[in-house]
Write a structure and sequence with these properties.
The chain is mainly α and 151 residues long. It is built from six helices and no strands. Helices cover 79% and strands 0% of the residues.
Length: 151
C-alpha cells in the first residue's frame, strides 16, 4: 500500500512538473502553484521511500562485520541495530510531530496550504518505520527461536 501511495505522489509530481514546463515555456505564464505542489509531492515520495526501504531492509547498512560473526553474535548485532533505528525514528516522530504542530499556522506562499500538512510526512513515515522495525525485530527473534540457536 505504501508503495502505491508513493507511486501516486510520484505521478502527481511528474504531472505537475510537465504542466509547469508547458505553462512556463509554451504559454509564457508560469504557475507558481504547480512548482510548490510538486515540491510537496517530492517530500512525500522521499519520506515514503524511506519507509519502504525500512520495510524491505534496503536502507544503508554496513553488514560486513555482521556477516563475519557467528549467528548468535550476529543476532545481537541486528537487535542492537533495531534498537538504534527505533531510537532514531522515535526522535524523528516526536520532533517531527512538534514541528508539524508548530507549522500548522504557517501557510505556503502560493497555494495557501498549511505547512504542517507537508511536514506531517516526517512523523507519519517515522511512525510507520517504527512499526516495521518492531516487526523485523520480532521476526528475527522468532527465527532465532525456531533455529534453536542458544547463546
Amino acid at each position: 500500500m505504501i508503495v502505491n501511495v508513493s507511486a501516486i505522489f510520484l505521478g502527481v509530481m511528474v504531472l505537475l512538473v510537465l504542466v509547469q514546463v508547458f505553462y512556463r515555456y509554451v504559454l509564457n505564464d508560469p504557475l507558481p502553484e504547480s512548482q510548490e505542489l510538486s515540491i510537496y509531492a517530492m517530500v512525500y515520495v522521499i519520506m515514503l521511500g524511506c519507509t519502504i526501504a525500512v520495510k524491505n531492509k534496503t536502507h544503508i547498512a554496513v553488514e560486513l562485520v555482521q556477516n563475519l560473526l557467528p549467528e548468535k553474535f550476529a543476532f545481537f548485532v541486528r537487535q542492537i541495530t533495531y534498537f538504534f533505528m527505533f531510537s532514531f525514528f522515535g526522535i524523528l516522530l516526536v520532533q517531527g510531530w512538534k514541528l508539524t504542530v508548530r507549522s500548522m499556522p504557517q501557510l505556503s506562499p502560493s497555494t495557501g496550504i498549511p505547512v504542517g500538512y507537508i511536514l506531517f510526512s516526517i512523523p507519519l513515515c517515522a511512525f510507520i518505520s517504527i512499526l516495521y522495525i518492531i516487526k523485523h525485530a520480532i521476526d528475527d527473534i522468532k527465527k532465532r527461536r525456531n533455529d534453536n540457536i542458544v547463546p
